[in-house]
Amino acid sequence: MRKLLSFALAFVTFVCLCAPTQFIVGSHAQSDAQTAQRLADRAIGQTPLMNDLRELCDQIGGRPTGSPACERAVEWGAAKFRAAGVADVKLEPFTVPNLWLGQTAAAECIAPEHFTVRLAAAPYSPSTPTNRPLEARVVLVGDGSPEAFAKLGARVRGAIALVTSDEMKTLDDLFAEYLRNTSMVEAARKAQVAALLLQSTRPRGLLYRHPISFVAQPVPMPVAIVSREHAARLARLAERSDVRVRLNLSNKTGGAYQARNVIAEIRGRERPDEVVLLGAHLDSWDLGTGAQDNGVNAALVIDVARAIKQLHLRPRRTIRFALFTGEEQGMFGSAGYVRSHANELDKHVAVVIFDIGSGRTTGFFLNGREELRRPVEMALRSCKWLNISANPLDGIDGTDNYDFLLSGVPNLVANQDPLPYLPDYHAESDVFDMVNAQEAKRNAGLAAALVWSLADTNAPLPPRQTRAEVEQLLKATKLDEQMRAFDQWTDWETHRRGISR
Ligand SMILES: [Zn+2]
Q1: pLDDT number for residue 381
Q2: Distance (Å, rounded) from C-alpha 315 to C-alpha 328?
Q3: 7 is a domain residue
């Protein structure tokens, strides 16, 4: 008992000692935690999130940036925010360097056997000549590495080069498929191939959009993803005989064009110039209806705004909701936001991005900023049932946190289970049915609790980094290596993207 008594006493003493702040912080932290809990609890109840997603997928469908469907989605998103009671909604324009929209893709093996070859053009692949189909012999180029091309020498000139692939099983496999792009295209260009056919890494005929450029720049030869089984048949035939293929790709291409982001905000009651941004990209590829990538998280962002309005909450800082487009082309929507809001970035205290479908969120990637760990843990400690455990320090390149990271703004990416997401990634099968409603709603609860707590906490949050600090972070997280492999380093070096001072 005494012990208890003495402990209690000690505790009360402690409280009294730092009454002013502790008590306020205490009571504020409590109300903060309660609000976070209310937001999280609301999200797993009856909400319109999945109905919104059904509308987006089934009524608007696949919505590549630059397409009429994407324009419809932007209007749809703005209307959803307004219907949720968010008055301040803007459509902010930005520029995408080059237009690319897939139209038709057809191929057939014409010798030694005749059969149809299913394939999908790779974004930023040119069309085949319109006046005549491209017909050429097929040459196997193994994994498409510069070494494989070098070994073949002149034999591959004017041919259709067929690259074989391992089946994709993990996120690392997906990254490997991207990391080979630049050197493979360069080797194919030097070898003067007529076209490049890449074996799909997904089984059972599944096709997907595999962007062959990360910076929305057209590549010098037609490139397409071929059904895994059809590519294997072509390869076996090519090992034994001369194989000829007729290829017909028709894509809509063009120069720079304008697209739009949907930006909505709930103004802060005390520090309105300080901003916490919650974002997800709204654009998708067109073979499926962009349910996992990234419709479910666009619906999540809308639902968090709706929740805060429904509970009549006004955060201390401003909360901004962003439905970016231009993401699949190279994160141009978020880059455009960073450019047009450059004079506000010092006051962007946190950016939170969701972009791994409805996979369970177990934490947040801290993108090289250890000092973000405590605010994230503090923000989510009230939501015990959310069971957040993994906040890796890794730096993420490949979604809309990227330009915020390069601009020194504290940024978080939801660390979601990729396994339910990978099989349908950019594929025909990325449709409404693939989304796990329960996990999607749990993620919405998590997002609401985190964004609310970051926007309402009295505690200071880590500052914006300088260019030198960002440069150091890029090295420490090895993002510099990835950016070089993805052709992104020059934009950083030349200050076209990222903080300049
Ligand atoms: Zn995505």
Answers
A1: 81
A2: 32
A3: no
> Do 198 and 220 share a structural domain?
yes
211 CA from centroid of ligand 1 (Å): 12
| Residues 445 and 351 reside in one and the same domain | yes
pLDDT in tens, 173-191: 999 999 999 999 999 999 9
Burial class of residue 359 (count of CB atoms within 10 Å of its CB; 0-12, 13-18, 19+): buried
Range of the domain at 173: 114-251
Number of domains in the chain: 2
Asked if the structure places residue 417 within a domain, the reply is yes
CA of residue 281 to ligand 1 center, whole Å: 7
Cα(13) to centroid of ligand 1, in Å?
52
Same domain, 77 and 141: no
Are 221 and 340 members of one domain? no
User: How many A from CA of 429 to the centre of ligand 1?
Assistant: 15
Q: In this predicted structure, what is the pLDDT of residue 27?
A: 61
For residue 476, report the distance from its CA to the centre of ligand 1, in Å.
Answer: 25
Q: How far apart are the first and last CA of the chain?
A: 60
Do both 308 and 411 map to the same domain? yes
Residue whose entry in the numeric block shows the structure tokens 């015990």: 384
CB-CB contact of 184 with 213 (8 Å): no
pTM over 0.90: yes
Return the pLDDT at 30: 63
Q: What angle do CA 309, 311, 316 make, to 5 degrees?
A: 75
Query: Which CATH number covers residue 165?
Result: 3.50.30.30
Stretches where the chain sits below pLDDT 50 are 1-25
Task: Looking at the structure, tell me whether residues 213 and 200 fall in a common domain.
Answer: yes
- What's the gap in Å between 418 CA and the centre of ligand 1? 12
Task: Give the C-alpha separation, 122 to 257, whole Å.
Answer: 20
CB count within 10 Å of CB 133 equals: 16
Q: What is the CATH number of the domain that holds 393?
A: 3.40.630.10
* 422 lies in the same domain as 377: yes
Q: What is the structure's pLDDT at 29? A: 62
Last residue of a domain, one of 227, 251, 275: 251
Amino acid 33: pLDDT: 82
Query: Do 69 and 153 fall within a single domain?
Result: no
Of 247, 126, 150, the C-alpha closest to 197 is 247
What letter does residue 208 receive in the DSSP assignment? Answer: B
Q: Looking at residue 389, what is its pLDDT?
A: 76
Angle at 488 between CA 487 and CA 491, to 5 degrees: 125
**Pair 35, 313: CB distance under 8 Å:** yes
